[in-house]
Amino acid sequence: MEHTDIALWQKLKEEMITAASSLGIDKLRVTTADPFLELKERLIRHRELGHESGFEEPDLDLRTKPTLLMPEARSIIAIAVAYPSKMRGAPVSEPGKRRGILSRSAWGEDYHQALRRRLANLSEWILERVPDAKLMSMVDTGALSDRAVAERAGIGWSGKNCSIITPELGSWVYLGEMLTNLPLPPDKAILDGCGDCTLCIDACPTGALVGPGQLNSQKCISFVTQTKGFVEDEMMKKIGNRLYGCDTCQIVCPVNRKIDMRHHAELVPDPEVAKPLLRPLLKMGNREFRDKFGSGSASWRGRKPIQRNALIGLGNFRDVESVPDIADVLHEDPRPVLRATAAWALGRIASPEAIDILKMAQTKENDEDVLSAIDRAISGEI
After folding, report:
1. Mean residue pLDDT across the chain
2. DSSP 3-state assignment of 300?
3. 151 and 285 share a domain?
4. Which of 16, 28, 173, 327 has its CA 20 to 30 A from that of 182?
């Protein structure tokens, strides 16, 4: 394959951008496969400050040097796919029938599958025109930073809320990329459009946005809802009724306000899945969980975090009618994290029945963490 004809590769790129919508892609841009040197410096500082989530690729060289992943790489094709920001026909949350909420990025089909399908379509399109092209696609779980690639390719700018913000679609977009040995002409980055606005930083419930474009993942509600362990009492109050993820920093963004893209049918939410009743979640088995949530991205950590977060939601609602269901978890669930969270929820509700249940559990519980939670709940410390 000759790489010398600049006009040929420019034409291919223009045709690819034109074809993107027919492939289910809302925006497509190109950058080089050069190292992400500034990103590596930021990642080193991020690690030194203890702000990593632990879900990232640990090798910083793999995250910032594309040619370690594909030695022949010359270009990176970045894609963006828009998802809805508003739920139509959302069910009402009411006493005894309280509901949780999944973040918008977890509505509809698992975006990993949706983007992989589109990248596969794009691969097929390229190979029809350049049969000996080498291609490597990644979505979220790949080593490269989707956001760093998208920013350098000109998909959007990196907002103060750490999201890529596109002028056309806001930050309500999924990102993916494809490494290739094709020498496609790179696009230019977009100028920062945040200006002096700090609404996202000001609105963050936990102060996780420690500066413009700087996130302490350990304090981020979106991260915490995906963990499997114990959650601190104050953090549980901040979580509210969120079952998975957090959209606050995107909801307040002025660029996002009137954007609601619904043209990808598989990404439009089922309201009963995206805003489910909380009490049934407490008794849900693995098979039922898979049937209800298995096709979405919120299922990747299993049912335990969702059930824990459902208990947190019921506690924050102070939903008296759910006390018997929460009590069943406290008395019968084999998982200490869920029993401790149930104790916290009963302490938040603090009805006479809830306190009596806590005192009874106090006499039978053997786990120190659960006993500590029961003691705090009874004493009103939460």
Report:
1. 95
2. coil
3. no
4. 173
- Looking at the predicted structure, is the pLDDT value of residue 306 above 70? yes
Residue type, 70: M
User: How many other CB atoms are found less than 10 A from the CB of residue 34?
Assistant: 15
Going from the C-alpha of 223 to that of each of 53, 203, 229, 377, the distances in angstroms are: 7, 17, 12, 25
| pLDDT digits 0-9 by tens, 116-142 | 999 999 999 999 999 999 999 999 878
Q: Check: CB of residue 350 under 8 Å from CB of residue 304.
A: no
In a domain, 371, yes or no: yes
Please provide the size of the chain in residues. 382
Q: β-strand 101-102 against 209-211: which pairing, if any?
A: unpaired
Q: What per-residue confidence (pLDDT) applies to 382? A: 86
pLDDT, one tens digit per residue, over 18-54 is 999 999 999 999 999 999 988 888 888 878 888 787 7
Kindly state whether residue 270 falls inside one of the protein's structural domains: no
Asked if 365 contacts 345 with a C-beta cutoff of 8 angstroms, the reply is no
To which residue do tokens 């993107």 refer? Answer: 20
Q: Which tokens in the block code for residue 299?
A: 């299922």
Same domain, 239 and 373: yes
CB 346 within 8 Å of CB 322: no
For residue 4, the model assigns a pLDDT of 60
The reply to whether 266 falls in a domain is no
Q: Which residues contact 116 (CB under 8 A, 6 or more apart)?
A: 137, 139, 176
Joined tokens for residue 114:
């949706």
| pLDDT tops 80 at residue 236 | yes
- 3-state secondary structure string across 49-113: CCCCCCCCCCCHHHHHCHHHHCCCCCEEEEEEEECCCCCCCCCCCECCECECEECHHHCCCCHHH
Residues with active-site annotation: 140
Range of 222's domain?
206-245+278-379
- Report pLDDT digits (tens) over 79-88: 999 999 999 9
CA-CA distance, 299 to 139, in Å (whole number)? 17
216 and 352 in a single domain? The answer is yes
Provide the pLDDT for residue 111. Answer: 96
In a domain, 350, yes or no: yes
- In terms of domains, do 239 and 157 share one? no
Number of domains the chain contains:
2
